[in-house]
């Protein structure tokens, strides 16, 4: 019996061509899926994509899906073969129970995501300065203590107040960045984002994994103009070493902080591959001016300025 | 049919888990039983058609034609055919074609499957060969999964309830109680079916046909006669993958095969009183009743509800169907024809039908049989 690797490869290639949102036609949960998929029940849907084609694929949903539910694709690691080949698959994420397609389009948010030290803050500040008539940074609400090096991008609060705002639904996206040295929470307030929209401007947010997911979940993925920022370098090692160099030269953090950030950075780089669907553009931060030019070209509000 | 083709002999092994029996043992037993019932000499067989789906995977065996032929003293020419679970009907259809073309006069048709030598996972994966290996299988879907999708959609469109569906297997188990060749002869209540473990939600264990060993053989002839005549033999196909179909709650292959078979036998659907239908999963039986035209769409379950309440004259899956009699894949289609012949004779009924399909009805074979003594 063949191990199925070429079959899976061709199948996946076809699936990638059909990387489209769709609607659940039917679904079933296999109590005992084939051994290669592990021992947990697996929910598989027959999905009609928006181009009319039908596909069979796993459905990812915390609750039981339903017929007629809207789903969107994402790549994920499926399993490893006996030869050690890691097999990725297209799975479909069930959108929240409420009909998402009916959600009012609130406007665009420009999101910059990348590992610590890649230059997110510098780029966002520069964008807000260069395009000050058209865009504005969204302040980050944080529970951590102010630092000398902070440059007005943070609004500080207490953990208690943060929690109250989160429960009240004012904080639309939040994260607790793991750290061995301090407890830090970060989030965005809907009031800040909406105030910028009301001025007719484009909100710019500096995010990481959970913040980006939270924003996409709250406002809808289509509202996020999402840029992934990569450090220069061909290999993962080269990229990480470029980050380390930047973190050390900017001299803001202690070595313990830097170690923490490097650990997170490795995870962040993997996230770019796992959740390609959350990014519209990947930009390598070789130097500031080329990044700004690249973003300018890709953001409709900026082009032509 | 171009010629009169008669069922002159048939034989079955009991269906079940036969750890001590090999593929060859099962073939031998069915052939011996068929020859015995036909009163023919083995050398009068001038062609063998063998139906089998999985021997390469489950038994490391190909060359099944020669293997079957070697069990007869004169080693007649032999041919192996495969159309997944519909292999049995395809073997019958192929035999009819040889007989009609006069290339053969008496054909031994044999269906055999020896599934319990391999692990459940290996068998399950091999059975997925009956779906599209690149469009269907990579998602992790299994056949119970395909029919789980079909069941959920059917329930959504026609409001079938879980409790209603459970009547199907209850009927099949009740029928199998009287069949000495059946794998599961114990009776089940609909409540037992509803309470059985989930396999592919909403399908439960007792909705699913089992993994079985078994063989079925029959002898078809144009020169030797019997009261049982093949009046129609039709094969049709549909897309292999359910993703390429506009609907999954009705099977085009069955509808087409039925309409052609009725035309070929020149009878009305209402003339048919004995039916063996392909109930690989209980939902399949419900859909089959509609596609065969015995019920309107969405109302197939009513036939089973009527049978369970003793209200219908239709003899349906008297063998116990695939669910309770067992489903040694390629033997099933031939077993169905044998069972139909048996009930036509026992009940002096004129017309009976065997409906066998492969995959999710990617191929379908329908045979209509006439009892000329009735």
Describe this structure in words.
Chain A: One of its GO terms (molecular function) is GMP kinase activity. Chain A: InterPro entries: ChsH2_C (IPR002878), GK/Ca_channel_bsu (IPR008145), Guanylate_kin-like_dom (IPR008144), NA-bd_OB-fold (IPR012340), P-loop_NTPase (IPR027417). Chain A: Residues 107-300 form the Guanylate kinase-like domain. The complex is a heterodimer of chains A (305) and B (374). Chain A is an alpha/beta fold and 305 residues long. Chain A has 2 domains: 5-100, OB fold (Dihydrolipoamide Acetyltransferase, E2P) (Beta Barrel); 109-298, P-loop containing nucleotide triphosphate hydrolases (Rossmann fold). Chain A is 32% helix and 29% strand. Chain A is built from 8 helices and 14 strands. In chain A, strands 1-2-3-5-4 form a 5-stranded mixed barrel. In chain A, strand 10 (171-177) and strand 11 (184-189) form a beta hairpin. The radius of gyration of chain A is 21 Å and the shape is globular. The termini of chain A are far apart. In chain A, 32% of the residues are buried. Chain B is an alpha/beta fold. Chain B has a domain at 5-119 and 212-221: Thiolase/Chalcone synthase (Peroxisomal Thiolase, Chain A, domain 1, 3-Layer(aba) Sandwich), CATH 3.40.47. In chain B, the strands form 2 sheets. A 10-stranded mixed β-sheet of chain B has the order 3-2-4-7-1-8-12-11-9-10. In chain B, strand 11 (351-358) and strand 12 form a beta hairpin. The two termini of chain B are 20 Å apart. The mean pLDDT of chain B is 96. The chains are: A alpha/beta (305), B alpha/beta (374). The A-B interface holds A 1, 4, 7-8, 10-12, 14-15, 25-35, 37, 42, 44-46, 53-58, 67, 78, 89 and B 57, 121-122, 124-125, 133-142, 144-145, 148-153, 156, 197-203, 242-244, 248.
């Amino acid at each position: 019996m063949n191990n199925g690797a070429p079959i899976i490869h061709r199948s996946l290639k076809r699936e990638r061509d059909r990387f489209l949102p769709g609607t659940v036609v039917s679904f079933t949960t296999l109590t005992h899926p084939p051994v290669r998929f592990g021992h947990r029940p697996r929910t598989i849907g027959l999905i009609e994509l928006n181009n009319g084609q039908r596909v069979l694929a796993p459905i990812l949903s915390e609750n039981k899906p339903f017929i007629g539910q809207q789903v969107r694709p994402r790549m994920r690691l499926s399993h490893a073969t006996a030869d050690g080949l890691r097999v990725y698959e297209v799975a479909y994420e069930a959108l929240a129970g409420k009909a998402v397609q009916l959600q009012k389009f609130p406007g665009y948010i420009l999101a910059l995501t990348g590992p610590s030290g890649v230059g997110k803050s510098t780029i966002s500040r520069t964008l807000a300065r260069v395009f000050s008539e058209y865009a504005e940074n969204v302040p980050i609400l944080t529970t951590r203590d102010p630092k000398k090096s902070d440059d007005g991008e943070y609004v500080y609060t207490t953990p208690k107040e943060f929690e109250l705002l989160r429960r009240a639904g004012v904080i639309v996206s939040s994260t607790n960045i793991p750290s061995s040295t301090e407890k830090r929470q970060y989030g965005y307030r809907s009031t800040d984002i909406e105030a910028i929209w009301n001025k007719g401007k484009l909100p710019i947010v500096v995010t990481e994994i959970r913040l980006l997911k939270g924003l996409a979940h709250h406002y809808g993925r289509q509202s996020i103009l999402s840029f992934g920022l990569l450090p220069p370098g061909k290999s993962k090692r080269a990229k990480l070493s470029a980050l380390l160099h930047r973190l050390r030269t900017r001299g803001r953090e202690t070595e313990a902080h830097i170690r923490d950030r490097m650990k997170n950075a490795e995870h962040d780089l993997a996230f770019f591959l796992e959740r390609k669907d959350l990014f519209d553009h990947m930009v390598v931060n070789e130097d500031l001016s080329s990044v700004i030019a690249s973003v300018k070209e890709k953001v409709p509000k900026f082009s032509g300025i | 049919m171009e010629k009169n083709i008669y069922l002159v002999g048939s034989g079955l092994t009991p269906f079940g888990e036969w750890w001590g029996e090999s593929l060859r043992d099962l073939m031998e037993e069915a052939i011996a039983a068929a020859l015995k019932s036909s009163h023919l000499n083995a050398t009068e067989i001038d062609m063998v058609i063998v139906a089998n789906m999985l021997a390469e995977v489950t038994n490391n065996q190909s060359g099944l034609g020669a293997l079957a032929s070697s069990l007869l003293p004169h080693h007649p020419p032999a041919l192996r055919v495969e159309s997944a679970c519909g292999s049995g009907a395809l073997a019958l259809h192929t035999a009819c074609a040889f007989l009609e073309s006069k290339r053969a006069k008496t054909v031994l048709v044999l269906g055999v499957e020896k599934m319990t030598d391999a692990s459940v996972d290996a068998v399950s994966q091999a059975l997925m060969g009956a779906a599209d290996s690149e469009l269907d299988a990579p998602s992790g879907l299994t056949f119970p999964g395909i029919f789980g999708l079909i069941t959920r959609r059917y329930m959504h469109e026609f409001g079938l309830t879980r409790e209603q569906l459970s009547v199907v297997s209850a009927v099949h188990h009740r029928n199998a109680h009287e069949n000495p060749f059946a794998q599961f002869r114990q009776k089940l209540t609909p409540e037992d079916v509803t309470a059985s473990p989930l396999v592919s939600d909403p399908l439960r264990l007792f909705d699913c046909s089992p993994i079985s060993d078994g063989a079925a053989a029959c002898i078809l002839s144009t020169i030797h006669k019997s009261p049982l005549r093949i009046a129609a033999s039709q094969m049709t196909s549909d897309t292999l993958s359910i993703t390429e179909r506009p609907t999954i709650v009705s099977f085009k292959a069955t509808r087409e095969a039925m309409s052609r078979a009725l035309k070929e036998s020149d009878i009305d659907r209402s003339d048919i009183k004995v039916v063996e239908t392909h109930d690989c999963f209980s939902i399949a039986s419900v859909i089959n009743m509609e596609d065969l035209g015995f019920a309107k769409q969405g109302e197939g379950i009513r036939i089973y509800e009527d049978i369970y309440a003793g209200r219908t004259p239709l003899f349906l899956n008297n063998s116990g169907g695939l669910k309770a009699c067992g489903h040694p894949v390629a033997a099933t289609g031939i077993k169905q024809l044998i069972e139909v012949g048996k009930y036509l004779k026992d009940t002096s009924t004129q017309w009976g039908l065997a409906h066998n399909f492969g995959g999710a009805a990617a191929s379908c074979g329908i045979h209509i049989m006439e009892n000329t003594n009735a």
